[in-house]
Every structure is written in C-alpha cells, then in structure tokens.
Write a structure and sequence with these properties.
heterodimer, A: 319 residues, alpha/beta, 7-stranded parallel β-sheet, 11 helices, B: 134 residues, Rossmann fold, 5-stranded parallel β-sheet, 5 helices, globular
Chain lengths: 319, 134
C-alpha cells in the first residue's frame, strides 16, 4: 500500500517515518505531503506554551486523558530544543505522557527545534498535516520552553493555552507585549504555591485594562493545582478542556476560525515560497563559493550586503 | 540540504529506578549530535516499542541494573519484530554478567556495554553500526 493511503488509515509507522523525512528535508517527503494535503484541515489544533518547567508536558498528559474520556483521538507534537553546539537534542516531553504509550488513538511525536527560533520546529506545520491526515480529532502542539516572544504557535494553533507559574516577576511582566497577548486560555499551574493568587489577580487586571468589544473573547484563567493531589488536579484539567470547547464554539460562531485558518495558510504559502526561492538561491551561492567571496568583499567594504542582495535577486528571479 | 540525524531512544525497562547511567548516556548522545528520546524508568517492553515506533528511532538503548535483562531485553526485540519494526537496532547496558552475553546476542541484542565502557566507545559503535535509512 502506498504511504499516503497507510497514513490516512492511521498507520503510525508510516506517519512517523514521513514526519522524520520532513524534519530531515528528504526530497520525497514534499511529494508525499502534496498528496496528503487534500485530507488535511479537519482537526482542532491546540497550542500549549510557557516557560521551561512551567508544566506544559504534564498538562498535555492530563489533557490527553480528559480528551480520551470524551472519545477524541489525539495527536501530540512536542518540541524540545536542539543544541546550537552539537546539533543534538534531548527530547524529554513524552516522559510525562508514558501512560498513553499503548493507546492506539494517541500518537505522541517529539520534534527538535533544529535552529528554529519561534518556539517550534520548521517541520511542525507539515507534521500537523500528517496527523490531520491520520484523522486525529485533536492535535496538541507543545512548544519548547519559551521566554517573552517566541510566539510562532499562533500561526499553527486554533486555540493557544499559555501556562504561567507563580514567582516569575511582578505585575509589570503581565503588562508586557508578546506572550501575554496570545493566550486564548491562561492556565496558572502550580496554583498551590505562594504567589498564585496574586498572579491570577495580575492577569485579571491585565485583561480588564484591555479594550474589549462585545463579541471579543475574554481569555479565561484556569487555576491548575498540585499534580499529586490527583482529584483536584483532574478537576482543573476538566475545566481547562471545557474552556477550550467554549473557545472552539466561539471561533466557529464569531467567524474568527476562518480568520485563523486564513492566517495559517498565508504562513504556509510564505514558508513554501522561502523554501522554493530563498533556500535554493542561498544553497547555490554556497555551492559556487560566491557567498564566501561576497562576504570577503563586504568585509573590506568593497561591496555592501544590500546592493549585493538586489543584484542576486535580479539575476535569479529572471530565470 | 538534506540533514539525516540519528535518532536514539534511551529507556529503562522494568522495576529499576537507577537511571544515572541512562541519563549520562542520553546527555552524551546529545553532545554527539544525536536526537535522544529519553523516556526514563519503569517501562514495559510494550511501552518502549510503541514509543520507538512513534518516534521513528534508529536505535533503542536499554539500561537495566535489576537483573531482569534476560527477560526484558529479548522481549523488546521480539515486539519490534511483531510490529514490523525489526530494522530498529536494540543495544543494552547495565549490570549484565558475561555469561548472559551469548543468550542476549542470540535474542537479537546487537551490542552490550557494561560498567566501565568508555562513553566514546559507545558513540563510536553507534556511528559505525547505525546507518539511518536513506
């Protein structure tokens, strides 16, 4: 059976191999993705982001449990950082999700960032498509531990959960642009710890001070307690899922879903253009040695990068 | 532009919480430029195999210090075969008496590293023997 058919039937081995080929930029992967594309676009995509150690993977694990109770099939893409020095990576998110390892309807795949700076991997968009084609109802994309503005997740997810933890700074932090603006749902994790209540107040006052129109979505704040107090923890995750469901309904009824999907597609076109235009040009300049000699010229101020780029663009885009 | 990376899984099957060795290896593989899926302690062979397939790894490294290697290591190889994933190489390490080596090799474990094995020698073995599929 050909790969595409197998993936559409939910075959994990074919799917994970194709995701690997996408990550490794194997040329045949592109043609497979093209064939898969008509079968994509039917899943609901949840992003989960926050600082390192905030509890993204633990919450993801609990979300899987809650979604499985509702009979949803789940795909998870969990991103961890690549070493800028060795190129290696420790992919340790799935250690929190081991109890789902044998559930046929849960597919967890780790991705390394491989130099991408927006909190994700360059392969994530296409990896989502692979899981969509497999027929997963819900796909959870977990970013690397992020700082203030690695917000590429908004280009891929329909709903974004921002996980916050107490003790990371005062109310000025909640006023800042970037990460605090992208949440559709806030989860304040480790809510049993000192400062959680204060953080909740700060986020609330941040939300209150923002102009809000009648049909806008006001991000709810879910307090997520100690994971070892299992009952209370499960309850807070149930609340999280209910809020995600509400956000899904809001996206549908307000027309915002269509906006988000459009934005996602425009990003896809952008990425594809870059891969088809910019990358081959840079590659050919590297191969021919022109890039290096150009760098020499620029270094001695016999040329400047701007004119050089214009000249290169004229030369290549004519072809 | 193609960039095939070696993907390795480091796992500890069975009732064994001594993961210092496994962690050191995971770190060492990271520094060797591999992508390492670290899944920690207390796993069943079924969980390990499911994860190895979901992650499309080239190699599974099993660590066992509890003495149950003769049951657990071969079971992982067997399950990989059942799942049509026999191309994933399995190696093992930990407290493994020499008289068990033959049985493990026969069961399909491709290499065994015991305490004292130099980290470099393990990385070297992987670089020589693991060729990610084309």
């Amino acid at each position: 059976m050909e790969t595409v058919k197998k993936i559409c039937k939910g075959d994990v081995r074919s799917a994970s191999r194709l995701i690997r080929d996408i990550e490794d930029k194997i040329p045949s992967a592109k043609s497979q993705i093209k064939k898969l594309y008509p079968y994509t676009g039917k899943s609901f995509i949840i992003g989960i982001t926050g600082s390192p150690g905030a509890g993204k993977s633990t919450i993801t694990d609990a979300l899987i449990t809650e979604l499985r109770k509702r009979n949803k099939t789940v795909g998870v893409l969990a991103v961890d950082p690549t070493s800028p020095f060795s190129g290696g990576a420790i992919l340790g998110d799935r250690i929190r999700m081991l109890r789902h390892a044998e559930d046929q309807d849960v597919f967890v795949r780790s991705l390394a960032t491989r130099g991408a700076l927006g909190g994700l991997s360059h392969a994530v968009g296409e990896a989502i498509h692979v899981m969509e084609a497999m027929g997963k109802n819900i796909i959870i994309v977990e970013t690397v531990g992020i700082g203030q503005q690695e917000i590429d997740i908004i280009n891929h997810a329909h709903s974004v959960i921002v996980v916050l933890v107490p003790g990371m700074g005062d109310e000025v932090q909640t006023m800042k642009a970037g990460i605090m603006e992208i949440a559709d749902v806030f989860a304040i994790n480790k809510a049993d710890r000192t400062g959680a209540k204060q953080l909740q107040t700060e986020v609330m006052s941040m939300l209150n001070s923002a102009p809000i129109l009648p049909d806008d979505w006001r991000p709810p704040i879910v307090m997520v307690g100690n994971v070892y107090e299992t009952k209370a923890f499960a309850k807070s995750i149930e609340e999280l899922v209910k809020n995600l469901e509400a956000h899904y309904l809001y996206l549908k009824s307000s027309g915002r879903m269509a906006e988000r999907i459009n934005r996602k597609i425009i990003v896809e076109i952008n990425d594809a253009l870059r891969a088809n235009i910019l990358e081959p040009i840079v590659h050919s300049l590297e191969e021919s040695g022109e890039l290096r000699s150009l760098a020499q010229k620029i270094k001695s101020r016999k040329a400047d990068p701007y004119s050089a780029a214009e000249e290169i663009a004229r030369r290549f885009l004519k072809q | 532009m193609t960039d095939r990376k070696i993907r390795v899984m480091v796992a500890k099957p069975g009732l064994d919480g001594h993961d210092r060795g496994a962690r050191i290896l995971a770190r060492c593989f990271r520094d060797a430029g591999f992508e390492v899926i670290y899944t920690g302690c207390h796993q069943t062979p079924e969980q390990i195999v499911a994860a190895a397939i979901q992650e499309d790894v080239d190699l599974v490294g099993l660590s066992c210090l509890s003495g149950a290697h003769r049951a657990l290591f071969p079971r992982v190889v067997e399950l990989l075969r059942e799942k049509d994933a026999a191309d994933i190489t399995v190696i093992g390490g930990g407290i493994i008496p020499e008289q068990d080596f033959d049985a493990l090799y026969k069961a399909g474990i491709k290499a065994i590293f015991t305490p004292g094995a130099a980290l470099d020698s393990i990385v070297e073995w992987i670089r020589t023997n693991i060729k990610p599929r084309a």
